[in-house]
Structure formats: structure tokens, C-alpha cells
């Protein structure tokens, strides 16, 4: 990156003190790649001013996380940070809409009121260790949009904490909760990140999904998402985070005996998913 008569913008040592080697490696590489792009693409001053103005606005409206999401950096960093041993459930990014300390629910667990609009959905399965043992003390923390694709914190028509709950798995690691099927939604796109997406010819849609955090003593906590099979955006997610092993199929139930078994007066759907957590070694 440097020329014979130019000092490096990232010296390995300054004023006799070594710079943190990791910081040095990261900054040197990123600046090196940026310099190469500026040189090869012959970036001009008006283009630099436009870029700096954009990045300043991204910070002002607090969209740095969103920018990292839509350019695929969040997913890449998630993959570097959580490397499962092949048996554990795949992780996924948290996204910007998690609220810690959701209400703790006991069985039968429901994420919303009985009158929540949308397709009633029961999600069930088991939480196990990758060695196969059930994890009865597992805690699940679930959040999702309503059927209009809105999280409760961005929609004054929903009750506080709607479609956000924490609950424990049962004695054999089994869990079940009732909710409504989420739908595809558009990530925030009224600000600079939305303008960026439009400028590069991209859309802001995410396929329908549920977010989950699953944790148990002695095991690596998992943050992930479950995607609903058949969603039109499954192969074109605005943040590139769909993993095939996290896609679940919905079974539809309409027969009177199925409704009677659950004491329901309307059709419902079910989805099954087992989680596997990796023990701390
Ligand atoms: C989400 O799934 O909640 C989300 C993730 C990244 C950006 C925006 C929303
Ligand atoms: Fe989401």
C-alpha cells in the first residue's frame, strides 16, 4: 500500500510501542483493500464526499447495524464467531429487534392472545445436547412479527411484549408454544440503508421467520431463526441469512377430529423442530 516516500497509515509500532497485532492486521488489510479500490476504480473527490455523507447519515440515524446486515457482513461474522461442531443447531444473526427479559411463560405457552389475527401455529420439539441427552432446564426466548410483518415495538396497535416470550423446556427437554404464523416483511428502508438498497437495485424483504435464543447450563447458548418453508423470499433474503437446515415445513390441520383434539374451533398449523446445543468443552 505504501510507496517509497510515504509512511504507512498503519505502522506496526508507534513511538517505540508495538500496536496490538490483531488490530494492526485487521486495519492494515482493510485499508490496503480500500486503497486498492480507490486506485483501481479511480475514485474522485465528489464520490468520496458522497460516500462520507452517506456513512455520516447512517451513523446519525443509527443504521450501522442494518448496513452490516444488508451487505452480508453480519452473517459472515456470525459464521466466524459460532462454529458448530457439525451436530449443533446452526446459529443465525440476532437482528436489531430483540428485547431482553421478555415475559416468562408457563405451559401451555402462548406468544399472543387468543384473538391474535393470523394462522394459528403450534411449534414443538425437543432441546438436546449434541451428545443426545435431553436438556430439561433449557430456556427458550422467542420473538417474531405479527401476520402483518410488524414487531410489537414498531406497531402501537399490538400489546407490549406481544409475540415475545421466554419459557423453559419440560422435564424431557420437550417444548411447545402456540403463536400465529409470521409473514415476510420489509426491513426498515426509509433511511440511508433503504436508499442504498434501491440504488444498487435490491429489495428490503426478509422471508417469514421466528427468532429464537436457546440456552441451557453447561452448553453454548444458541441464537438462531426458523424459516417457514414455501415463503417467496426464502431464496432472496435481504440479509442473506437463510440456511436450509433452519427451514421448517408447516402441516395444516382442518379435520374436525384434529380440531377437537386441541379443543379448537378453527384450523391450525403445526411445525416441529429439535434443537441441539453444544456442551462447553
Ligand atoms: C430481523 O430479522 O429482525 C432483521 C434482521 C436484520 C435486519 C433487519 C431485521
Ligand atoms: Fe426478524
What this model shows, in words?
Helices cover 24% and strands 23% of the residues. By secondary structure, the chain is α/β, with parallel strands linked by helices. Strands 3, 4, 7, 13, 14 and 15 form a 6-stranded mixed beta sheet that branches. A 5-stranded mixed beta sheet has the order 6-5-10-11-12, with no helix packed on it. The chain is globular and about 80 Å long. The chain starts with 12 loop residues before the first strand and ends with a strand. The relative contact order is 0.16.
Span between N and C termini?
42 Å
Number of strands: 15
How many separate helices?
6
The main β sheet shows up as: 6 strands, mixed
Proportion of residues in helical segments: 10-25%
| Rg, Å, rounded | 23 Å
String of helices and strands = EEHHHHEEEEEEHEEEEEHEE
> Could you tell me the strand content as a percent range?
15-25%
Amino acid at each position: 500500500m505504501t510507496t517509497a516516500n510515504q509512511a504507512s497509515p498503519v505502522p506496526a509500532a508507534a513511538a517505540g510501542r508495538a500496536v496490538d497485532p490483531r488490530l494492526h492486521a485487521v486495519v492494515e488489510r482493510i485499508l490496503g483493500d480500500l486503497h486498492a479500490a480507490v486506485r483501481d476504480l479511480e475514485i474522485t473527490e465528489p464520490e468520496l464526499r458522497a460516500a462520507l455523507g452517506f456513512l455520516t447519515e447512517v451513523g446519525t440515524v443509527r443504521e450501522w447495524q442494518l448496513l452490516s446486515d444488508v451487505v452480508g457482513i453480519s452473517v459472515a461474522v456470525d459464521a466466524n464467531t459460532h462454529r458448530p461442531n457439525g451436530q449443533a443447531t446452526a446459529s443465525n444473526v440476532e437482528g436489531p429487534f430483540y428485547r431482553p427479559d421478555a415475559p416468562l411463560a408457563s405451559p401451555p405457552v402462548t406468544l399472543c392472545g387468543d384473538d391474535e389475527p393470523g394462522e394459528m401455529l403450534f411449534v414443538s420439539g425437543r432441546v438436546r445436547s449434541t451428545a443426545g441427552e435431553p436438556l430439561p432446564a433449557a430456556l427458550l426466548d422467542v420473538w417474531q412479527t405479527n401476520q402483518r410483518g410488524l414487531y410489537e415495538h414498531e406497531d402501537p396497535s399490538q400489546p407490549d411484549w406481544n409475540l415475545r416470550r421466554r419459557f423453559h423446556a419440560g422435564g424431557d427437554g420437550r417444548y411447545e408454544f402456540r403463536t400465529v404464523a409470521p409473514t415476510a416483511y420489509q426491513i426498515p428502508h426509509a433511511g440511508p440503508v433503504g436508499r442504498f438498497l434501491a440504488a444498487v437495485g435490491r429489495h428490503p424483504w426478509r422471508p417469514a421467520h421466528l427468532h429464537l435464543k436457546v440456552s441451557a447450563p453447561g452448553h453454548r447458548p444458541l441464537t438462531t431463526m426458523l424459516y417457514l418453508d414455501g415463503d417467496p423470499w426464502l431464496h432472496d433474503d435481504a440479509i442473506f441469512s437463510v440456511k436450509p437446515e433452519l427451514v421448517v415445513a408447516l402441516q395444516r390441520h382442518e379435520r374436525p377430529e384434529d380440531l377437537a383434539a386441541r379443543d379448537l374451533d378453527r384450523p391450525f398449523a403445526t411445525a416441529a423442530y429439535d434443537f441441539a446445543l453444544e456442551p462447553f468443552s
